[in-house]
Amino acid sequence: MAGPTWPVGAKAVKGETLSLSTTLASLGRPAGTTQLNLYNPSTDFRMMLNPRILGVHFFNLSDTAGTRFTNNTVGTTNRNSSTGTTLSSAVDGDYLYICLSDPVTGLRVDVGNTNTTTSALTIGKLNTSNTFDSLSITDGTSASSKTFNQDGTITWSLPSDWPMKFLKDNGSTSAGPLTDVDAPTEMGHWLRLSWDATLDSSVTIQDIWTINQSTDRGYFRAGTEYSISLDQNVGAFEAILASGTDTLQATWVR
Question: How far apart are CA 101 and CA 124, in angstroms?
Fold first, then answer.
């Protein structure tokens, strides 16, 4: 997603609303958009722009080396696609790797086809030693001890030792935690999602976007329209109210 150079001639707009309350709400950035216009009618709000997801890759343990990775980046991060990421019958030993432009403290997951098998989610982050440290997570997609059973937010505390790295060191097949020739080559902050049981045969993740590590959100006044030019490393925005409820109107410009 290229960064904008202004002025840019608009080609399309997309409007949607986001229900605001004292609970954090967020929206992922549709692919190709370069500007965001926000208007909240009645209540002052706080807002933050969130880091972009650079890559989403599914690792299938049962495939042969060289064909184990499927790149699901576009279908899982652009909010305009019906593809998403398929986790159908994913087993303990399969992984979902996510590459981030900056460290974050959570993911918002829009589940397509839900999982109904009892399972627990584990998330690790890649450290300077090329190993994955487990994060202590709160899994908002879990219901009745079934991960990816509903739309939700997965959160954790900001960890230390979470550098920007290649999953394989500069693409080398002998360095890093993975040796497969088709392993992802994006440079960023890496997460690895796994589960402890075989998931349903039709599980899909429709969309993923990030939750900001910071709570120092900007202050925005009600009844005022704000136009924001988006950098290439913005992947979502989040907003919250100090009290009450309101409906934020968002217009994405492409």
Answer: 16
Q: Classify residue 72 as left (phi > 0), alpha (psi -120 to 50) or beta.
A: alpha
Output the six-digit token pair for 15: 């409007």
**Confidence band of 78 (pLDDT split at 50, 70, 90):** confident
Q: Which two tokens stand for residue 115?
A: 């999982």
Is the pLDDT higher at 140 or at 184?
Answer: 140
Using CA atoms, how far apart are residues 207 and 84, in angstroms rounded to an integer?
6
Which class for 182: exposed (0-12), middle (13-18), buried (19 or more C-beta within 10 A)?
A: middle
Summarised one tens digit per residue, pLDDT across range 10-29 is: 899 999 999 999 999 999 99
Q: What is the DSSP string of 112-145?
A: SSPP-S-B-EEEEEE-TTS-EEEP--EETT-BTT
Residue-wise pLDDT for 82-107, tens only, equals 789 999 999 999 999 999 999 999 99
* Nearest by Cα to 162 from 183, 143, 189, 135: 189
Q: How far apart are CA 18 and CA 238, in angstroms?
A: 10
What single DSSP character describes residue 244?
S
Whether the model pTM is above 0.85: yes
Separation of alpha carbons 165 and 185, rounded Å: 10
Give the residue among 26, 159, 47, 24 at the shortest CA–CA distance from 104.
159
Pull the structure tokens for residue 247: 């409906």
| Closest among 170, 165, 168 to 179, alpha carbons compared | 168
Instruction: Provide the Cα torsion 186, 209, 108, 226; round to 10°.
Output: 150
In DSSP terms, 153 is beta-bridged to: 108
N-to-C CA span, the chain: 12
